[in-house]
Amino acid sequence: MDSINRNQPEQNVENLTGRAAVEKLAELAKQAETCFFCTAGDSARPMNVREVDEQGNLWFLSASDSRKNQELAANPEVRLFFQGSPHAHFLTLAGRASVSRDQDKIDKLWSFALKTWFTEGKDDPRITVIKFEPAHGYYWDNKHGAAVAGIKILLGAALGKTLDDSIEGTLRA
């Protein structure tokens, strides 16, 4: 039993609240840029995060006639899943989404590439804004960056020892 414990990594847990939670959420969402946006209708689709605001809300653009918007009208509960790189920057969030047609927010979130989905540009009548308000989340990342984590993985494999560089914890705004 002792030999098993000797090879087990020390668990690094850091539960974050308030400003620290918002900063970690924004960092991981920016790293990933895209998430799986899962509605209560059991539909999951990739969505590009257009903005994370100072309160930790995530903003998306969506088509008014999309299945996603229909599912949100029936039930605003949403889960988001992020993966920023193959071995780090993981985040899951649970919360509620609301849909609006706030033209000022559309203007702020707009980029030319979105014309692929909204062919009439930022004034396309189908564009809606989704505001996601996270209630809680969980993250898993590495403490020292991908390069150090990669070196520790290789060194650990060579030594036959776990050299865990991960850090994980809950997020509450």
TrEMBL record:
The General stress protein FMN-binding split barrel domain is annotated at 21-164
UniProt superkingdom? Bacteria
Task: Identify the SUPFAM superfamilies for this entry.
Answer: FMN-binding split barrel (SSF50475)
What is the recorded name of this protein? General stress protein
Family annotation (InterPro entries):
Split_barrel_FMN-bd (IPR012349), Stress-Dev_Protein (IPR052917), YdaG_split_barrel_FMN-bd (IPR038725)
Organism this protein belongs to: Zemynaea arenosa
